[in-house]
Amino acid sequence: MKRILTLSILVFASDQLSKWIVVQYYDLQFRGAIDVFPPFLNFRMAWNEGINFGLLSGLGSDTMRWSLVVVALAVSAWVLWWGRKFSGWFGAFLVGSIIGGALGNTVDRIVYGAVADFLNMSCCGFRNPYSFNVADISIFVGAVGLVLFSDRLSRRA
Fold first, then answer.
1. Which one of 27, 62, 136, 151 is the catalytic residue?
2. What ranges make up the beta strands (E) of 12-145?
3. Is 35 a catalytic residue?
4. Treating both helix axes as pointing N-terminal to C-terminal, what angle do 2-19 and 134-149 enclose, rounded to 10 degrees?
5. By C-alpha distance, which of 49, 19, 29, 18 is closest to 113?
6. Which residues contact 49 (CB under 8 A, 6 or more apart)?
7. pLDDT tens, 41-73?
8. Among this protein's residues, is 108 annotated catalytic?
9. What average pLDDT score do residues 107-120 get?
10. What is the pLDDT of residues 5-38, one digit of tens each?
11. pTM, whole model, 2 decimals?
12. Rounded to whole angstroms, how far apart are CA atoms 112 and 13?
């Protein structure tokens, strides 16, 4: 449990720090776009009021915002409870990635009313219209890792 909490805090802190640097310090919220290494890596400001890829963002009410906060906290608590059965670092990393990412996006919803997305990657003639953040990457990596490896992770007796 201690490993999971430590890794959750590290993921959460890296997400919030990256958002502060890019959105606040580099002023992306007002600049809108910064080409870092085009077309492979760009910063494109997007405020996501919905869930993945902006789904349900048209509902944009306070009820939806706080409902998503409650759902994220409930899912994080469940993942923490479920993930405590894994004894190794890899399982703790996957579970901590999901929890830290979910809490990072939850803080955005509470503070800004929407999730701050800014990473945009394109390649090979494909222009990606979506932006994402460190929390999104962490949640994705943790979820895919648990789907692929949960039966192989060491479990507590």
1. 136
2. 33-37, 41-48, 115-120
3. no
4. 150
5. 49
6. 57, 59, 60, 64, 65, 113, 114, 115
7. 999 999 987 665 454 555 557 777 788 889 999
8. no
9. 93
10. 999 999 999 999 999 999 999 999 899 999 999 8
11. 0.86
12. 17
Tokens of 2: 């201690």
Q: What is the pLDDT of residue 56?
A: 52
- Cα separation, 32 vs 118, in Å, equals 9
Annotated active-site residue in 35, 108, 117, 151: 117
For residue 155, the cross-strand partners are: 86
In the chain, where the domains are located: 2-149
| Helices H / strands E in the chain, number of each | 5, 3
- Measured in whole angstroms, the distance separating CA 86 from the mean position of its chain's CA atoms is 22
pLDDT above 70 covers a percentage of the chain that reads 90
Q: Measure Cα distances from 153 to 4, 45, 92, 99, 121 in Å.
A: 14, 37, 10, 18, 32
List the Cα angle 67/81/72 in 5-degree steps: 15
Contacts of 54 (CB under 8 A, 6+ apart): 46, 48, 130
